[in-house]
Amino acid sequence: MFFAYYRQDQHVVNFIIVTLTFCIGVAGAVPVSLCELLLTRVVLNLPDEGEESGHSRSLGFRLLVAFCSAFLVAALVEEVFKFIIGYAVVSSRNMRNAYGIFVIALSASLGFAALENVAYIMDTASTMDDKAVIGVAIARGCLSVPLHAATGSLIGVGLARFANGEDQPMWKVLLWPFLIHGFYDFALMGTEATGSKGWQAFGLVVAFTIVLTASLWAYQEVRKLSADESRGTWRKV
Questions:
Q1: Sign for the pseudo-dihedral over CA of 206, 146, 116, 43
Q2: Residue among 165, 21, 5 nearest 93 (CA)
Q3: pTM, rounded to two decimals
Q4: pLDDT digit string (tens) for 213-233?
């Protein structure tokens, strides 16, 4: 976040606003978690014929639950939250600077990711040994944080183009971040549902590929955004 902030002229957005947005992202992780928990109770309590007859849930059902958890719980709730925070801050400050809007959205995303990572690590520490905790910390640092940074960046790019007057509905700002996040989570949750270590390893490879591709795409979008602004085609306050 600070690299993005100091990469260009710091006057594009106030440092205090960036820090405040990051803190809002951290604080917002709590109600988001509660909302996800509520949705999870609904999703994971779907009736299953095998369960009703005393048998274990079928693979198809487990994959369905993984799909719903990935897209309808994690991706939808988290990306909508990041969008709301970014949109609220940008609107309240009447921001028109493209790169500044991107930094705001990135700050909200990384603030959320920070508390989420702490929660995952603490949960792992309460039930597993130190090696497992280190493994979770490394995995989330290499996968989860870049994922949130990429989707947050794409939301920022969309918000910046919307603020510049481009004619596009708001749902388009969320579409790709939602899909990227959903497929990333499903790659991990779906393969875990199989119970096969081979499939789980494959899921990690797919998740890493999604994160890498999304990060490179977000980087290119931010570069195009900055280029458009530098050519003087951007409205400023």
A1: negative
A2: 21
A3: 0.87
A4: 999 999 999 888 878 777 765
